[in-house]
Amino acid sequence: ALFIATAVAEIVGCYLPWLWLKQGKPVWLLLPAAVSLALFAWLLTLHPSAAGRTYAAYGGVYTAVALIWLWQVEGVTPTRWDLLGAGIALAGMAIIVLQPPLHR
Predict the structure, then answer these.
(1) Mean pLDDT rounded to a whole number for the chain
(2) Is the pTM of this model over 0.70?
(3) pLDDT single digits (tens) 12-60
(4) Taking each helix axis from N to C terminus, what angle separates 2-23 and 51-72, rounded to the nearest 10 degrees?
(5) Pick from 13, 28, 32, 43: CA 20 to 30 A from residue 5's CA?
(6) Would you say residue 104 has pLDDT above 70?
(7) Is residue 51 part of a domain?
(8) Which range of residues forms the domain containing residue 76?
(9) Is 39 within a domain?
(10) Is residue 28 part of a domain?
(11) Three-state SS across the chain?
(12) pLDDT of residue 101
């Protein structure tokens, strides 16, 4: 759930400026975008593992959430190739997250 919340915060933080730049939406959208990106950065700090491992695992969840965003917000149905790619990304994320504990 934390990975999903992190992904949504990042997507919102990037989508709002995209709307302003590409679709001529109001410039004030940059304010909630900045708040959302700050929330994204803070949420990343709540993940329990090392930053690099968190970022690597997060990438898989981000890919899947971005495709859900594409479908639900932008109204574009993901292709089977999109879904295959997301499945592979999530499998990679699971390998990273579920690895056995490291012994030092």
Answers:
(1) 91
(2) yes
(3) 999 999 999 999 999 999 999 999 999 999 998 898 777 778 888 888 8
(4) 60
(5) 28
(6) no
(7) yes
(8) 2-97
(9) yes
(10) yes
(11) CHHHHHHHHHHHHHHHHHHHHHHCCCHHHHHHHHHHHHHHHHHHHCCCCCHHHHHHHHHHHHHHHHHHHHHHCCCCCCCHHHHHHHHHHHHHHHHHHCCCCCCC
(12) 79
Output the pLDDT for position 59.
87
Residues 41-56, buried b or exposed e (16+ Cβ, 10 A)?
eebbeebeeeeeebeb
Q: How far apart are CA 14 and CA 9, in angstroms?
A: 9
Q: Do 37 and 10 meet the contact criterion of CB atoms below 8 Å apart?
A: yes
Question: How many Å is the Cα radius of gyration of the chain?
Answer: 15
**Joined tokens for residue 91:** 């499998």
Structurally, the chain folds into a number of domains equal to: 1
Packing angle of the helix pair 51-72, 80-97 (nearest 10 deg): 160
Confidence check: pLDDT of 89 > 90:
yes
* Residue listed under structure tokens 């939406």: 25
Per-residue confidence (pLDDT) for residue 1, from 0 to 100: 87
